[in-house]
Design a protein that fits this description.
- The protein has 265 residues and is of the alpha+beta class.
- It has two domains: 142 residues, dinb family like domain (Four Helix Bundle (Hemerythrin (Met), subunit A), Up-down Bundle), CATH 1.20.120.450; 87 residues, Nonspecific Lipid-transfer Protein, Chain A (2-Layer Sandwich), CATH 3.30.1050.
- The protein is built from eight helices and five strands; from the N terminus they run H-H-H-H-H-H-E-E-E-E-H-E-H.
- A hairpin with a 6-residue loop joins strand 2 and strand 3.
- Helix 2 runs parallel beside helix 4.
- InterPro entries: DinB/YfiT-like, Maleyloyr_isom, MDMPI_C-term_domain, MDMPI_metal-binding.
Length: 265
């Protein structure tokens, strides 16, 4: 079974729940922490900046869903910290939770099939936003936990779904087509295997005119093995010391760079 489009293993309601739940956990990680503390996994950011980014993400997605936007919606609030500079640092936790709750409520009201604009090539429904915002919140919760020393744990099925979302993004044209100054990604014998201990395996085949991936095992040029949450964090270039990597690490670095084109941080 190969995949080159959206195949989600979790329900729409689960994603909506996780948006609020993961946000509340994130707020808990930073409660009482120094907002000016650096976030090493997001170079140049501090905790307050991280919270404003996540809250801006949620409010951006909420506007898309609420207005049933049929074209791009301005996203200055996602990456420009001055947009929400008027939010007092002491109120950021509550502000963050309020935004997540509004987004989850708006998604539930719309349902998973409402047609809206998305930045993806082939996904134009609210289901995209529910999944994307759930995983966006998960990864930035990991950033907050790393910055504060809080424990970061994630349900295996949610982490596995995050890996599959990444693999789906890895098949879009921008992730693999030749670009000036960038090494060729596709080629004979190029492949990757991800083995999440007790949670699943995925095989990525780059030996063709476009990437494909499937659930299951395969002999690969580079193999990664570790806990499923650590594998997810590695994809996002977050610390993942429990992951063992064998084989062509240059191919892995190139694949991570090309498939991470869509990340803001």
């Amino acid at each position: 079974m190969t995949h080159d489009g959206p195949v989600s293993s979790l329900t729409f309601d689960r994603y909506c729940h996780e948006i609020g739940y993961q946000t509340d956990l994130l707020a808990g990680h930073v409660k009482g922490a120094d907002g000016t503390a650096p976030v090493a996994s997001c170079p140049g950011w501090d905790l307050d900046r991280l919270l404003r980014h996540v809250g801006g993400d949620h409010r951006w997605a909420d506007e898309v869903v609420r207005t049933r936007a049929d074209g791009p919606v301005p996203d200055e609030g996602v990456n420009d910290p001055s947009v929400y500079a008027d939010i007092d640092a002491a109120a950021l936790g509550a502000w963050l939770s309020d935004g997540a709750a509004a987004l989850a409520a708006g998604l539930r009201a719309a349902g998973p099939r409402a047609q809206v604009w998305t930045p993806a090539e082939d996904r134009f429904t609210t289901a995209f936003w529910a999944r994307r915002m759930a995983h966006e919140t998960v990864v930035h919760r990991a950033d907050a936990a790393l910055a504060t020393g809080a424990e970061f744990r994630l349900d295996d099925d949610l982490a596995a779904d995050g890996i599959e979302e990444w693999l789906e993004f890895s098949t879009v044209s921008e992730a693999y087509e030749p670009q000036p100054g960038t090494s060729e990604l596709l080629g004979a014998g190029r492949s990757l295997r991800f083995h999440a201990i007790g949670a699943g395996q995925w095989f990525v085949d780059l030996d063709g005119d476009r990437p494909t991936w499937r659930i299951g095992y395969g002999e690969a040029a580079v193999s990664l093995r570790g806990p499923v949450t650590d594998l997810l964090l590695l994809l996002y270039r977050r610390p993942a010391p429990a992951v063992e990597v064998r084989g062509d690490t240059d191919l892995l670095d190139l694949w991570l760079t090309r498939t991470g084109f869509w990340l803001e941080v």
